[in-house]
Amino acid sequence: MSLFDWFADRRKTAPVVRNAQEVNEDDGLWSKCPECGLVVYRKDLLANASVCKGCGHHHRIDSEERIALIADPGSFEALDSDLAPTDPLAFKDRRSYADRIRDSQRSTGLRDAVITGLCRVDGLPLALGVMDFRFMGGSMGSVVGEKLARLIEEATARRYPVLIVCASGGARMQEGMLSLMQMAKISGALQRHQEAELLYVPLLTHPTTGGVTASFAMLGDLILAEPKALIGFAGRRVIEQTLREKLPDGFQTAEYLQAKGFVDAIVPRTSFRSTFASLLRMHGVREAVVA
Questions:
Q1: What is the pLDDT of residues 263-277, one digit of tens each?
Q2: Which of 111, 159, 179, 217 sits at 20 to 30 Å (Cα–Cα) from 171?
Q3: Are strands 77-79 and 39-41 parallel, antiparallel or unpaired?
Q4: Residues contacting residue 42 through CB under 8 Å, at least 6 positions apart
Q5: Which domain holds residue 210?
């Protein structure tokens, strides 16, 4: 028997030994921080807005959790929840786009990668859009663009401020040019919102990249970010290969972008609602009942 065959047999027959301290997250009771390794009850992590008490790492959360953290309880009213994507290009790579849509809808319970609606934050009116990375990496297709554009237009008509929580890998390649058009459509709606002298704030979460960064994620009156969020257009490796030079440590993190002037403030998730409500009041937003 060769040495290679001996190792192959060992891999087949050796028993799998689990560390007694290893966390089984499949039971839904525990969560282990990927940064510091702290193990906590999942309910305790959720009670702290899914932020690690050991190191401050912000775990990824879904759109439903995000809305609960931002909006006053019971105040969120969804808009355009019936919009769903189609397959205009009959796109297919290893799998068809139609199958990918169905799988994402089944696994997330969402129709597409964004939820939009009207709510209150500490009694203040707000038009809120929340992207969900679980749905095809939060990619921006026609439905995401249409829902956000409609949200902004509704906010302009009501004279509400707008908050968009960004979490995306960029434009959705399976819809081709139709995805790229959403960048201009949303930007146009934001321009009209600005001309009405109304506030728009994007919150950049991990990750915010591609066509989202190249459009509405960077068009805010104030640009906020969560700690250590990855923010950029192209990936680090692509940039390094293009420039043929090594990029600095921490490049494309929220902290690096704040130091370079691209991000105005980094706001921890645990204090976001109170901080954002203060910003709304500073900009003249007054309490009102959402119709």
A1: 999 999 999 999 999
A2: 159
A3: unpaired
A4: 28, 29, 30, 31
A5: 61-282
